Amino acid sequence: MARPQARIAVVQFAFGLGVLGILARAAQLQLVEGNRWAEQAQRQRTERAVLPARRGALYDRHGVPLAVSQEFYHVGVAPNELTDGRVTANVLARHLGVSRSSLEGELRAKKPWIYFHGPFSATQVQPLRKLDGIHLTGNFKRFYPSRSLARPIIGGLSPDAPTGAAGLELSLDSILMGQPGEAVLLKDRAGRRYDSPARLVRDPVPGNDVVLTLDAELQEIAERGLDDALAQMKAEGGDVVFLDPTNGELLALASRQRGRSGLASMRASAFTDPFEPGSTAKLFTAAALLIHRRVDTADAVFSEGGRWSMPITSSGRTRVITDVHKTTGNLTLARTIQVSSNVAMAKFSSRLSPEEQFEMLRDFGFGTPTGAEFPSESRGRLARPDKWQPMYTRASMAMGYEFGVTPVQLAAAYGAIANDGLLLTPTLVREIRNPSGDVLYRHQTEPVRRVVSPAVAAQLRDFMKGAVGEGGTGGNAQLANYSLLGKTGTAVRFEGGRYVSGEYTASFAALFPAEDPRLVVVVKIDNPTGKYYGGLTAAPVTRTMLQQALASRRIGIDRSRLTRRDSASSHAPRKVASPAGVSRVVLSWPYQAERPTMTATKVPDVTGRPVRAAALALHQQGFRVMLRGLGEVSRTVPAAGRHAKPGTAVTVWAE
After folding, report:
1. Distance CA 333, CA 316 (A)
2. What is the CA radius of gyration of the chain?
3. Domain ranges of the chain
4. What CATH code is assigned to 597-654?
5. Tell me: the pLDDT tens digits for 407-416?
6. Rounded to two decimals, what is the model's pTM?
7. Any idea which architecture 216-555 has in CATH?
8. Per-residue pLDDT tens for 211-233?
9. How many whole angstroms separate alpha carbon 422 and alpha carbon 501?
10. CATH 3.40.30.10: does it fit domain 52-211?
């Protein structure tokens, strides 16, 4: 009897140990390792997917897209989820442009997954959305509709991530970049994924759109004008800046660098590359002389016949200063700027202390970034007065040497002269809008400081008037019908810490129109071949661009404020005797009576051209352009060959 009971006891004991082991293991799995196994199971059943957010767009001031994000898709096919493989193959072949026979072959091969990278547009994948077994993966691609237009300013994205890498794409990255969303996808035992709307964690939030101050058409004129000038002069590079002096808005910025290697460079040198401004800087020394009352209208210095050995030390050392435009006799300050005399300006500058001269240059914004929304903007070069060689450096500064400015800094400084002495912060951002189109920010004028009084600014503008008038160095910039103010500059190039003999930087700064400046134009040409003086190179380029801007009806020049050079201040017509004795009528701009007699022009055929080239062709015929779509032009309304009056809006449809 004892032996069976012993066996039962052993079995019971073993069974009890087994139960205890199971309970211990269950406790370990549920209580100790429960969270870990639950997380692993969750990972096996679900997959978190990042939903990309649309990056905000960049527009010009008139709504022309300069940088946009277009949604595209990759297509995946799960053959085991298809209800009708033949129908699916037909739809895929028709809308994605894939081979139907090869697709059917892959379906017969019973591959677990078929992938089409594309990328495919939203229009292409729309018919696929309701088909079983089709999985779409969406993403965004940055697209620049105007190609190279303003690209050094706009910049681009990093190749590794959808973040800004250069230009405005970098400086405005936090504004343009949206917030990615997140979703949870369900997976079965075979690894197949299923969308689950109930498991959407977070919707993506698109980025904000930015309306820039740039004018696309004026930008086109600036870039084309600069390209033509560099080709004609065989120059190494150059910059063009258009600025509105009343609010600091930068309307156009063109930069080109070819360098000695001949290779073109996409660099926004208008912001990043300082140059020595030469005689365009003489106005700033003149401003210091006027503010500190070291000259009056009657003061004059002897011109030395255009060559002067200036003493620079008490021991008798001298420095030879020469004038290109040699004059005789005495020169007033106004005449000095008119003929751009280095000798006379060097003599006038001796009436200022280094501190006074330095403070004037600093107050005009030199030696510090302008504050425009552009990354890596150069502050230029402006040494403190305690680093100067008093006699030598004072004369150099007065002639525009030994300090460096960027074209944007120079434009802002001339903008202060146009704006009655008030220096404004230049800007590239006009508005910021949220994805719904609501305006979050609108640019307001940002004064930096009052540099000179309105009276001194008016006197400086009078000096500029003489510089482009009869006997001045900038006469080649004057337009036939409208007056501008300007100052030429020519300087020996400063590179690598030294002056390069035989190489020059030509520049011209202009205010247009003369009576009420609404545009500041700065043109800089690097090392032109042949004629290298600013009055013979940069000044004519300025005239050509202003003529093209006036011919355009879209560019924001208030023509009602323009006064013709040969008209009275009144807008009434006046009669002038012609050489033949027949009276002719000279009219102020605009002359409304001529509009009804404008002859109709044939709309050019721009089908198949890129949008940018088509817009240029239409603008040249005097038409306004309304864009619908991107890419190549498919049709226009009015159609090609139809006649329409100049100023008519032509709608351009592109794909």
Report:
1. 27
2. 35
3. 8-46, 52-211, 216-555, 597-654
4. 3.30.10.20
5. 999 999 999 9
6. 0.79
7. 3-Layer(aba) Sandwich (3.40)
8. 999 999 999 999 999 999 999 99
9. 38
10. no
